[in-house]
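Retry 2 of 3 after timeout on previous attempt. Resubmitting structure tokens to design endpoint.
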């Protein structure tokens, strides 16, 4: 896979180009996810956090290759589980819902009819990533040990707790082939909400 995704209009993109656009689009969607951005910028996944983010994109792509019928709920659970397993981060703001919607919307666009502009959703996602420095996100970082919000200690925050989306970003990398892991069944509470239990590392 090339380091940069091309974004010019294509009348009839081939299967390889569509797959490349999907892979790059997944990476864009994950890179734009504030929770993952904060986890990566602060090395919650250890010194290889950036590599783990790139692996994450490959794991999502592989999920659709092996299970093409993956739906919203399954992808949301998958995203939360990776955040827990690889970054020791509990995502509790339901932001995974928007990431899932973006990825599935991209996939639907790329699989559109022959006469459609299949690359439209990809180009929009690429544009959002390129303009990410103009966006501000409010992310609450909760230290489970102290049970209090800590929004100034971590690198990547300004005084208001906003995330600088331009920090430590680079061009779309080659996706790392995902390592097969044993699936962990999520815990569902009495209200029917899926919980990912664990503690974020500092």
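Retry 2 succeeded. Sequence:
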């Amino acid at each position: 896979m090339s380091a940069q995704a091309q974004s010019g209009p294509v009348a009839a993109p081939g299967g390889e180009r569509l797959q490349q656009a999907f892979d790059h689009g997944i990476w864009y969607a994950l890179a734009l996810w504030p929770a993952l951005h904060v986890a990566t910028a602060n090395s919650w996944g250890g010194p290889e956090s950036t590599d783990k983010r790139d692996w994450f994109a490959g794991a999502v792509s592989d999920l659709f290759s092996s299970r093409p019928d993956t739906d919203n709920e399954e992808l949301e659970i998958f995203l939360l589980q990776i955040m827990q397993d690889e970054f020791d981060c509990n995502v509790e703001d339901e932001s995974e819902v928007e990431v899932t919607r973006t990825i599935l919307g991209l996939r639907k666009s790329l699989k559109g009819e022959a006469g459609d502009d299949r690359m439209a959703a990809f180009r929009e996602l690429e544009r959002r990533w390129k303009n990410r420095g103009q966006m501000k996100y409010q992310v609450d970082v909760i230290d489970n040990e102290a049970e209090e919000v800590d929004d100034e200690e971590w690198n990547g925050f300004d005084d208001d707790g906003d995330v600088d989306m331009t920090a430590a970003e680079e061009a779309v990398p080659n996706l790392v082939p995902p390592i097969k892991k044993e699936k962990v069944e999520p815990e569902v509470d009495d209200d029917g909400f899926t919980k990912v239990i664990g503690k974020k590392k500092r």
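Attempt log closed. The CA atoms of residues 71 and 104 lie 8 Å apart.
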